[in-house]
Write the structure tokens for this entry.
Amino acid sequence: MHGLMLGILLFGGDWPTFRGPNSSGVAPDRGLVEEFGPGKSEVWKTPLPPGHSSPVIVGERIYLTGYEGEKLFTFALDRASGRILWRREAPRPRQEKLHKSNSPASPSAASDGRNVFVFFTDFGVLSYGPDGEERWRVPLGPFNNPMGQAATPVLAGKTLLVPCDQESGSFFVALDKDTGKVRWRVERPEFTRGFSTPVLWRPKGGRLQVLQAGSYRLVAYDVETGKEEFIVGGLTWQLKPTPALGDDAIYVLGWAGVADPGQQENVPEYEEVLARLDKNGDGKLQRDEIDNPKIVKGFEDLDLDRDGVMGKRDWQMYRSKRSVVNGVRAFRLGGKGDMTDKNTLWKYEKSLPNVPSPLLYEGVLYLCKEGGFLTALDAKTGNVLKQGRITGAPGAYFSSPVAADGKLYTVSEEGKLAVIKPGADWEVIKIVDFNESVNATPAIADGRIYVRTHSALYCFGRR
């Protein structure tokens, strides 16, 4: 666990944001129960309305979000008993379009140990105090994202970092955690839809930076000022997973449609196409002027700003989209400006997950893919150590893998949780069946395992 983790952990046994300390998915816990599941080593089980957000655990509290009918809620639970201490309804001035695999309560909460911060795509950001009293609210959006927002806000000291990538009008905003006032806001017009949660990194002797992966590149910003420090490129056009951060490298995974090896296309420059196809001379491409059947068929998705025509930005984004290759890329950290050439360490472009984030654990990078396939890569070289099926847990995967106590934990959407012995020759130890859907990532804190299904939050451990 690298040095920054010590600054992120609020207490020895906390899981303070999505995937725990600095979104790493790794907990230092030992002695976790080996036999667990519904009715077995069950400390408590609390019924909850659905939501894809993962449990966040700080001090004596657990925080989650959920939805019930048309209403959006934030929940605070007692960590010891699972009792719901309070629930607060968020405003919902709109209902934005969502992918069928998304939900109106997908981003996880963040907490500083006393207060909680939540983000809803249908409202924006709210903060509540220990007793559920609203501290402040910051409306954001509406968002131009056909899949819905999903990135989790991240706390860095007194700053709450909120990424809002979308088809047009993307931005990254930093809010004062005590007042909700904007500390800085960076516009990101070169980014389209994105769902990746940021991670934090401090260069030796330097200031804290926030690393945000998005379309085609990852950008490092100064946490205090929002100033761009360095970028690394070569990423695919749509980023869902959260990067895995090591001591001296970052591992960025991206899979998106039409970007597997061999699917690339040489798309001409906008000016060349405009000169040939712009029959009415308005400087833009109408749908009926385009002679490429693939573009005509996908016109609504390619018209990013929804103005009914393909302008220069729309075409440039399409051109970039058809040139990139999906993959996992390892980058050295640091530098100034574009560090792609200098910082790229290796890349791997086969058998890639869509949504689950990569997991770095004891020198091995794990990728958990749809169908229940697990790939172990040497984190230094990118070489495949082992690739195989998680026997007994096929199907779709939206939850990300986590690790603790010398074990990996993965869970499929149909609720099959696999306990896996890690390493170059990883093997499945057991499958725990929850008999209902799971989209949230498990949490591990203070010797206990927390699993959120679509109807409840389970806590497993020794009583």
Remarks:
- The chain has a mean pLDDT of 96.
- The CA atoms of residues 32 and 447 lie 5 Å apart.
- The helical segments are 4-8, 270-277, 293-297, 299-302, 312-321, 340-343.
- The radius of gyration is 22 Å.
